[in-house]
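Hello again, I could really use a second opinion on something today. I've been staring at a protein lately and its backbone has me curious. Can you walk me through what the tokens say about the fold? Take your time with it, there's no hurry, and the full record follows here:
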Amino acid sequence: MMDPHSSRSLRIWIAEDEDELREALGKSLSREGREILLFADGKELLQHLKSNPAFDIIIADLLMPEVDGLQVLQESKECNPEGIVIIMTGYASLDTAIRAIRGGAYDYIRKPFKLDEIEFIVKNAGEKIALVRENRRLLQKLKDTMEEMREIRKPPAHAPDAREAPSPADLDHELSEMDVLLKQMIPSDYDFKDREHREKTYQEMKKLIEYKKEGLLSEAEFFSMKNQLLKSLRP
């Protein structure tokens, strides 16, 4: 099932006390697939944040009255750690901007700048967000697969004698468990040479899953290694 969040619009909030620049940024960054909200200053943005922390990208001026960009950065990251914050700064405040990066800002841009420069940063940030969403969707798919496998592993009501040869039904049960995993984690156009190749792929994939469960691999590392594994095993 598709993650309902994977295809939703990017929610971009802009906090800038210079009216002309704020409006120019809103118009320049507005396009299909983006929801733009403009705030006259950092205080106004944080007031909105309290009731609705679901932003994707915040673009905030560093120097604003009452609530500056560093406060916006700190409070927005506390409310939404996955949200991306971009700081706009004048040349004289470059040192402060660097501290903002160390405090969790995604990037900063020095004023004056061209509108296509901020678009480039926003585009890269959007691609990062899309990757996180896709990894989350694939991880949920993996969890669903593991749940299916647990159901398949449940022993039958009448367990066969260990001395008996496995019946066709037992073999089908073994294959169905494998099929569930392969169906979810391996592309449908992946071509298996034979059953031995299929089983080897399954075993290697199972190792990766165990590494992920043990916390030895992050989500991004897991999916990257999964793709590399499939390429290396392709006949």
In short: The chain has two domains: 10-130, 164-233. The first helix runs from residue 19 to 29. The radius of gyration is 25 Å.
